[in-house]
């Protein structure tokens, strides 16, 4: 049954959120998984067997985005409470608060060098922040409606943003000018990823065109292939840029082959809408979160064999003639004249395959005061009865929260 190992498999599941899971991200070393929720909490799931999970409480509204820094030493979260927080993903529970926007913050992301943050908001602006100095740098204002997502390009020279004005805008980070606007996008763009440019693209304008063309082509592939029966809430690109996963309100996760232009897997497991999906940095794992409050962690598997072998395993031959024929040739584009094979359905029993649900350490609600540095004590009264036993060593532990207000 070698083919079973080539299909994605459910590795683990995590339960601890009390409401829908809205965002997720893997740490660069794959030792932790962060997830944000409508329950206003940030969870840090430790991958080691029997390791405890951390629940960070501080946001006052739904968490909309989460992103690990390239070093893995920080986690950024955005929220509808108009703030962005930088967390230390450990039992210290330290956080820095950016009072970032005048409306809900929809996304947050680190630059690839970890020195800057970019945020997108319902106040129609994109803002860039210094991570080291914990301060605001500049603002980008040309969107005419809510901005849903903003990301740095891999080289840090560009920022791409999209939103409810049906536009994708490209910004030059050195001049702070919008250098291109793609306004023919159908529907509302709620999220996207920045792809690595090819080695043949040497000029900035060429990279701009390539990034957006890849983005729009992949959006076209996901939306126009009619692979979902309800709205798409999130998608994530495999690091090879050959695959994309999407999560939908139809309760399924779909995996599309971008080189072949077709659906290859349909994954079931969530009860209710799938709100977020995310590949790990290496692409060997991906996570999904949904309205059922669960975080499912999957092992990719299908990227371990060569692309030609995967095609041969999962596609139907279009002709009974002996090899070679067109189906055996590594495809460079979609073969429209070939019948489309049926996607493989994977419907696992959602049960933790490694351990029981991890014990959750409550790190307490932040107590704000008029002082710039607020100190809070985490006592037994702030820990639920089910979690009190494993956190006795944390009672009376002192943790610090740095509150940095900005008036822009």
TrEMBL record:
Ranges for the WD repeats: 14-47, 56-87, 98-131, 140-181, 225-266, 267-298
Any one GO BP annotation for this protein: multicellular organismal-level homeostasis
GO cellular component: centriole; ciliary basal body
Annotated region described as Disordered, given as residue ranges: 312-340
Domain of life: Eukaryota
Protein keywords: Coiled coil, Cytoplasm, Cytoskeleton, Repeat, WD repeat
Family: Belongs to the WD repeat POC1 family.
Name assigned to this protein: POC1 centriolar protein homolog B
């Amino acid at each position: 049954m070698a083919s079973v190992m080539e299909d994605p498999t459910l590795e683990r599941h995590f339960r601890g959120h009390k409401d829908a899971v809205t965002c997720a991200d893997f740490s660069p070393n794959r030792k932790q998984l962060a997830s944000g929720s409508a329950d206003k909490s940030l969870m840090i799931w430790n991958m080691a067997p029997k390791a405890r999970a951390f629940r960070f409480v501080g946001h006052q509204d739904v968490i909309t985005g989460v992103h690990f820094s390239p070093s893995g030493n920080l986690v950024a979260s955005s929220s509808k409470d108009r703030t962005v927080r930088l967390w230390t993903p450990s039992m210290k529970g330290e956080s820095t608060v950016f009072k970032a926007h005048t409306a809900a913050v929809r996304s947050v992301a680190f630059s690839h060098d970890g020195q800057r943050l970019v945020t997108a908001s319902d106040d129609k602006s994109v803002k860039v922040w210094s991570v080291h100095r914990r301060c605001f740098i500049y603002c980008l204002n040309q969107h005419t409606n809510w901005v849903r997502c903003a990301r740095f390009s891999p080289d840090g020279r560009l920022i791409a943003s999209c939103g409810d004005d049906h536009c994708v805008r490209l910004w030059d980070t050195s001049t702070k000018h919008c250098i291109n606007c793609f306004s023919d996008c159908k529907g509302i763009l709620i999220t996207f990823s920045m792809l690595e440019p090819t080695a043949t693209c040497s000029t900035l304008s060429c990279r701009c065109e390539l990034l957006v063309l890849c983005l729009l082509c992949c959006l076209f592939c996901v939306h126009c292939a009619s692979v979902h029966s309800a709205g798409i809430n999130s998608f994530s690109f495999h690091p090879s840029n050959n695959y994309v996963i999407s999560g939908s309100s139809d309760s399924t996760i779909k995996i599309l082959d971008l080189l072949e232009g077709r659906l290859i897997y349909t994954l079931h497991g969530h009860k209710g809408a799938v709100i977020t999906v995310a590949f790990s940095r290496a692409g060997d794992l991906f996570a999904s979160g949904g309205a059922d409050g669960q975080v499912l962690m999957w092992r990719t598997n299908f990227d371990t064999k060569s692309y030609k072998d995967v095609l041969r395993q999962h596609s139907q031959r279009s002709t009974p003639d002996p090899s070679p024929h067109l189906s055996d040739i590594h495809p460079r584009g979609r073969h429209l004249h070939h019948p489309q094979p049926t996607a493989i359905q994977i419907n696992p029993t959602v049960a933790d395959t490694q351990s029981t649900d991890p014990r959750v350490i409550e790190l307490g609600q932040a107590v704000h005061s008029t002082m710039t540095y607020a100190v809070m004590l985490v006592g037994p009264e702030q820990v639920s009865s089910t979690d009190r036993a494993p956190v006795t060593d944390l009672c009376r532990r002192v943790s610090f929260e740095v509150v940095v207000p900005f008036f822009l």
